[in-house]
Specification:
Helix content: 40-55%
Mean pLDDT: 92
CATH class of the largest domain: Alpha Beta
Number of domains: 2
Strand order of the largest sheet: 3-2-1-4-5-9-10
Largest sheet: 7 strands, parallel
Number of strands: 16
Shape: globular
Oligomer: single chain
Distance between the termini: 33 Å
Length: 510
């Protein structure tokens, strides 16, 4: 009796393209354990998506820059050991874009970001996309992250009929001069490019090009999308006109989404390896935080006081977005007027600018142990969350933000300006003991982007943290539980899978 061997049709794969990634799951191949790093919300989302898609049986690939020197340092590997890994371990689903241009850099945005971006885009267009797509019978969805993964990459994908989801993590862009795209057929891609001028030179606006070519665009917070549509920040060079224009076009055509980032599974105090005492919402939260506070104070030179109200700033020292100059203006006066308060800042300056590192270092020096400034390290940063009473910032704008989520997960309130992602996620604390129907909220908001605004927000937080321990313990347990429920990682991944299936014509990927 004749029989026929039926071949299983190729499954549609998802290729995540990002300039950086967090800790990748080992199911992506042995190389995953050597490609990692603390990389902010963008990298954490990419890593979480990889983990979630693989768990669901979806074919998932990731392409990112091979920051060789950084990876070696983080894994304590010398040059020979690294070569052994690269030459003997198959890349499987991890596609490292290698180049001497960025091999020795600590991040994708160090050195010359435009040069890094064009090299990344060149290799993606000429090699990686073709290779991954061929492996899956031509069935591929691209998920690009940030401007560096836009430009020629998304234009090429659109020209080849490949569906694209572009996630807007921030509105920064890169204007890459056309002459830098050696080895890329820009002429054929020109109908899909968003051209701009920079210092009189014709360029490609990478973020606007990505938005233009994406089948769907996703914002990591609803309020920031609304602020773009409502023409916020027209008086400041925050949102480039090309990006605002393309976002509006996508919105009017029903092609915009909003999926809020969720913290990765490693960002929980129950399992964080950097704490002196791990804890969860069912434990004695304040006792555990006091132990971590004392350890943090010893490491940073703060006065050792387990009852201090620690206000913790874990963000980069960015005057264009994060409001570090506002912090500098009030920090010393605030701890003088509030004797039970300490302020800790853990974060690096932007690029090569050491101005704010020097300024905060001087402020810390004269504070007599009430203020500390430390450069970023993952271990100290995470210990700071466990030590903090309140995690705060002073953002001018914020597409999403993550410090508030992590702070709440670690049993701290959060304080920030009422804008973008913080408007989405911070709800003002109101308590039943003050006469309200129920306990609600997770932190404190302020409106004005100035010293008075930040002072007002922090004073509200300090008043709460002076309440009796039993009252604070009850609220911290509530906030920890509610945050876990509201920003569930699996729920975020489910939303992305639904979008991928929409781009796949409604057909499941697994």
């Amino acid at each position: 009796m004749p029989f026929e061997i039926l071949e299983r049709p190729a499954k549609t794969a998802v290729l995540l393209i990002a300039p950086e990634t967090g800790r990748l799951p080992e199911d992506m191949g042995t190389l995953a354990r050597f490609i990692s790093g603390k990389s902010g919300g963008l990298g954490e989302v990419v890593a979480a998506l990889c983990e979630g898609l693989i768990e669901r049986g979806i074919e998932c690939h990731v392409a990112t820059l091979n920051l060789k020197r950084r990876f070696q340092k983080e894994c304590n590997l010398d040059e020979q050991q690294w070569r052994e890994i690269r030459y003997r371990i198959p890349t499987a689903k991890i596609h490292l874009i290698s180049s001497s241009i960025f091999a020795d850099l600590t991040s994708a945005y160090a050195g010359d970001p435009l040069l890094n971006a064009v090299e990344f885009q060149r290799q993606m267009v000429n090699t990686v996309i073709k290779m991954v797509r061929a492996q899956h019978g031509g069935r591929l969805i691209l998920h690009s992250h940030d401007w560096m993964a836009g430009g020629a990459i998304t234009a090429y994908a659109k020209s080849r009929g490949c569906p694209v989801l572009h996630t807007v993590h921030n509105v920064h862009t890169g204007h890459i001069p056309l002459e830098m795209y050696l080895g890329v057929d820009i002429e054929k891609l020109s109908p899909y490019l968003y051209f701009s001028q920079d210092h009189g030179r014709p360029c490609i606006d990478c973020q606007a090009t990505a938005i233009k070519n994406a089948s769907l665009i996703n914002f990591v917070g609803y309020q920031f999308l609304q602020e773009i549509l409502d023409d916020y920040f027209l008086d400041r060079p925050i949102i480039p006109p090309g990006i605002r224009r393309e976002v509006k076009e996508k919105f009017y055509h029903g092609s915009t989404l909003s999926i809020i980032n969720a913290p990765s599974s490693g960002m929980y105090p129950e399992k964080c390896p950097h704490l002196v005492r791990n804890y969860g919402s069912d434990d004695d939260v304040l006792d555990a935080k006091k132990e971590n506070l004392l350890a943090f104070q010893k490491q940073t030179g703060l006065i050792e006081n387990p009852d201090a109200v620690l206000l913790y700033w874990p963000s980069r020292l960015d005057p264009a977005q994060k409001g570090v100059e506002i912090l500098e203006d009030i920090a010393l006066k605030f701890v003088i007027e509030h004797g039970d308060v300490q302020i800790a800042v853990v974060g690096d300056g932007v690029g090569r600018d050491l101005t704010h590192e020097d300024t905060l270092g001087r402020i810390a020096w004269v504070s007599g142990g009430k203020i500390t400034y430390q450069r970023f390290s993952e271990s100290l940063s995470m210990l700071g969350y466990a030590a903090a009473s309140d995690v705060f910032g002073a953002s001018l704008y914020e597409p999403c933000g993550q410090i508030d989520q992590v702070g709440n997960i670690f049993g701290a309130t959060t304080t920030n300006r009422d804008t973008g992602g913080y408007h989405d996620k911070i709800k003002e604390m109101v308590l039943q003991e003050d006469g309200t129907p129920r306990d609600e909220g997770n932190g404190f908001l302020f409106r004005d982007y100035d010293s008075g605004g930040l002072w007002h927000g922090l004073e509200k937080s300090v008043r709460f943290h002076r309440r009796p321990p039993e009252a604070r313990e009850r609220q911290m347990k509530r906030i920890m539980k509610e945050t876990r429920e509201r920003y569930n990682l699996q729920s975020m991944i489910d939303q992305y899978v639904h979008v991928y299936e929409r781009l796949n014509g409604g057909t499941p990927l697994a």
